[in-house]
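S., here's the first fold you wanted:
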Amino acid sequence: MQHNQTQLLKQIKYDVNKFILQVEKISFYLKKNTKNTNLFLENIINMNSTISTIMILNKNGSIKTIHSNCDKRIIDYQNYSKKVYVKHLNGKADSYWSDILISSLDKTASFVYSFKLKDEIVVVYISLNELAQLSNNLKNNDGSYMIRILDSKGAFILNEDNPKLVKEKFNTINTTLYKDLINKEKEYTITTFNNVSHGTMDYGMYTNLEKTNWKIVIRQNYSLMEQYLFDLIIVILITVIIFALIAIYFSYRFLNNIFGSLDRFQVQTSNIANGNYNNILEPTYFHEFNKLFLSFEKMRFEINAREKTLRNNLDNFKTLINSTMEGLVIHDTNTCIDINDVAVELLGYKSKEELLGASVENHISKRYRNLVKKHFKNNKFTKEPIEYQILTKDNKIKTVLGKGQEIEFEGRKLRISAFLDITNIKNQERIIIQQSKLASIGEMLTNIAHHWRQPLSTISTLSSGMKLENDLNILSTKKLSEGLSQINNTTQMLSTTINNFSDYFEPKKDIENFDLTDVLANSISFFEPIFSKHKINTLISYEDKNILRGYPYELTQVIVNIFNNSKDAFILNKIQNRHLIISTYKEVDKYVLSIKDSAGGIKNDLLEKIFDPYFTTKHKYKGTGLGLYMCHEIIVKHMDGIIYAKNVTFEIDKKEFKGLEIVIEFKI
């Protein structure tokens, strides 16, 4: 029954998909033949009885032309802008299949296929007649139709047993057809549900149409099938009883002599099941039994040998598990089932008995529990190892690199988690990052020197000039006041410079709204002396009011780091024409920051590595390989953005330049 229903359902699905494809071909032909659209549509209406009406709407939903074979004339050209298919096609979609609807043209049940044609929307009203013909030959023994078709919202598209339900757009969402079959079972799974039309119990299955999200249901009367099965079972039972009586008769006559041998054989199997392999079966008077007993004895000997081998292998496996550098824990969603000695030692316990049956979650740092719970909830682990923190027995924090896998263990679905202690490695990494920060401080001190050089020169010139004039008794009170005022203003400027650099090294950690344009302006001003010293020409093009939410001072560090890398690339590659192009622009759902230089770029096979920790193209004494890695961490983890690099070629004043472009994308 299940096989027959599956084959019939697949055939109906094929026919309906073929019908849908034929309708969709109208859009293909129209898009290729746009010159004689009206004539083409008239021919479709006249030649295809399935299509009752075709409307052409403008993009605002107003009717431009109508082609219909309906007897009723349309008096009022109503506005269709609020129709679902108009709203849907004004988005990104090119076509749309509607659910069941009652046509305003001929008041019959139909559905709509609509698609874009340049700046217009073509709406095709399709009758249900051809769909009904597909199922007319599929009837049950009681004369009812086997096939039902539902739209994506659960309303009947086809119900030949009760067409009234189609016209009423009867919704089956709250019926057992949906609850017990469609919402509960997978496609082509047979089950029982109530018949909406007759109130009887049905037996059937369903499938889904991918393009339209319609459901095709095949059903048969459960009571008829039940009666058929009952009659079949009665016949089988009678047949079985007859053969059983015959078998008992012959068994009683011919098998009395072998029961004793079978009893001994049963005792031997029980002994083997209980682990006793020492008893030996004695020969019998039956040649066939002797062959069986000899084979069984050989099996007993082999089982005994294999059991010894398995015990040895199990001991070796336990030794291997406990000799690894990784801690291993077998657990369900939260409870520890088994654990190796390495994990016991990492967690600060003396024996595994202290951890068996304990909560795994209690040994994960609170900061990472949600991450681990998410993996447990989704019943999967990441393919790559993840970094998280664990808590030892005395509440010490250790950083580990972990990975997990679902396993079958003693008939249960469990997980095995492996983790490696990388606390010392992380501490060394922090030291290296701190060294990188100190190197950045050295570079910033150079910037401060550039920023201060001119103001200090101004103060020195003013003070020495006023001292000389005072020694010559020609310093006027007015000139003294003006000089002191200028010295004060210059001093204030020096103080402002110090404050700006202090913000760079001690950024605010509170998230806030800020303008990307302001951050760029501050970063460029911050780096201006370096640009000037190394003769770097900056070309700036950005939109106003790119409002972001995040950490503006951390973003400043990213931009300055990128500026500094470009400066080093100009020097390293001995570039004469040094250009740095800084621009921002807005796309559909994001702001984009682009910084590209004319420093020649890097090899394509190195592009994917430049954001990796400790990767650098500079000399070892020049770079740590942490600059762009820290930029990546800030943009991705702190700003929820995307950063990537690519080699580019561009023109300035009709001259072609090659370089590297760093692109940063922020969600709006």
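And the second, which I think is the more interesting of the pair:
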Amino acid sequence: MSFQVIGLPVSRGVAIGRAVLVASSRVDVAHYFIDESRVESEIARLRLARDAVAGELSLLKRDLPAEAPAELSALLDVHLMLLHDDALTGATKQWIVERHYNAEWALSAQLEVLARQFDEMEDEYLRERKADLEQVVERMLRALAHGPGASFAAAPAVRARDFAGEDPLVLVANDIAPADMLHFKGGVFTGFVTDVGGRTSHTAIVARSMDIPAVVGAREASRIIRQDDWVIIDGDNGLVIVNPSPIVLEEYRFRQRQAELERERLSRLRHTPAVTLDGERIELLANIELPEDASAALEAGAVGVGLFRSEFLFMNRGGELPGEDEQFEAYRAAVEAMNGLPVTIRTVDIGADKPLDRMSVNELRHEHALNPALGLRAIRWSLSEPGMFRQQLRAILRASAYGKVRLLIPMVAHLSEVKLTLDALARAKQQLTDAGRPYVDVEVGAMIEVPAAALMLPVFLRYFDFVSIGTNDLIQYTLAIDRADESVAHLYDPWHPAVLALVAGTIRQAGEAGKHVSVCGEMAGDPAFTELLLGMGLRSFSMHPAQIAAIKQRVLRADTRRCVVRATSLLEAEDPRDQGVRLVAG
């Protein structure tokens, strides 16, 4: 039966494929693909987990006191029966063999299938057995987390490949953790659907960066879409069509072909210099998450890396932080891959929607805070972990000996943070000097992503060589909107006069001080804002490589003198969004 689900359109285009569900669980599990060579060992992990849980349950039953009610013994028998039922472990094995899921993902996927079957049972007693099934699966997931091979989750053999045959796949989930997104980044999925999230939630940003269609905030999508359902994701209109009719399917396939032709046309611009009609040269940089992304940046025509999000080196490692040498090798790989072009490395921005797998005492307090976005994150976290911070600073400085490196500090708000950061940097330099390790003095910049930083800019510019505007967080903190919360997503507004005033003021003040300024948030990669940002005086944009061609096309068609006139009018408007739409159309 065909039906539709409505959500928020966050990444344009059309995706068509079979649904792969990542079921939400009370136990967090990793989701990644395994290589053929690991199938048997992953099945062995599953078998060992089952045997371990069977042993636990048998011991519990044996040790029941004589006065224990008979129902308790019967309940343990039910759990043991479910544990050995081929519908659970046998079918889970098939997910590993056929789809090459890791054991945890396979178990979660089969739980989702069986839970739906229980929900559809007419007998109330049988429906209630779903809770027993969930408890058994959670015991197995915990056994997998602590059993042999658990450490493999920190470094799976395969990042993402399609083991599903000819059919394309789309991912459907309640939400997708940033660590999981790293594994899905390799291209196996042609689109994403999540129940939660807003336009600048992490899933939305990664989907746009991968240049694939996505719909978030689709509420009950992961509960009503089934494994292997055919799904159309309309990323332009926020529409998800499940089991579409042949006519609808053909219409969307036509739209897919048109979009592919447009992408091919834009790709021809990749080696064309980004110069406006009136001769202004514009710097188009790339945002990357991992060293191997540098090749995509060069292929897209980027003239450097404006943002290397170093926190992705810290994720999906079972909580073990990367050491100095490991970080150095990653940074050096990115720097060398860029062949002399500049690479701006942001210090770790852990927190809010990007937590670590295992937390220190400080981080545990943060995790359970009422609002993690306002807690111990970014530079606050780094300064609270001075040993880790100096390791990262030394690794970045060491990489500077192999190319042009710039250092970027996230979420600066207090002058005390600035001074502590520069002190830590000076100490890291002295340690490298004492150890005889080569490095180059790097330019140091601040992320402007909280209103306090924008308002403190004249002071901050005395300490920093450049600034980079992180519009995603700047909008969030200016408007007091959680950008990952779909219930207030309609209030997240990059056209808000206060947001535009802060962006324009930052660009103007940095220019007057002779300091380089760029925008590395979502606004930089959105063609709707290109002329506006040019009119504000911006000459450096940083975005995902997939977005560079579309922005370059806008730049090549723009006259900055006209952009200034239109931007001035827009900044004075009561409702900038209305004029902004007309500016883009014009």
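Why I say that: The mean pLDDT is 86. The two ends are 43 Å apart (CA to CA).

Talk tomorrow,
H.
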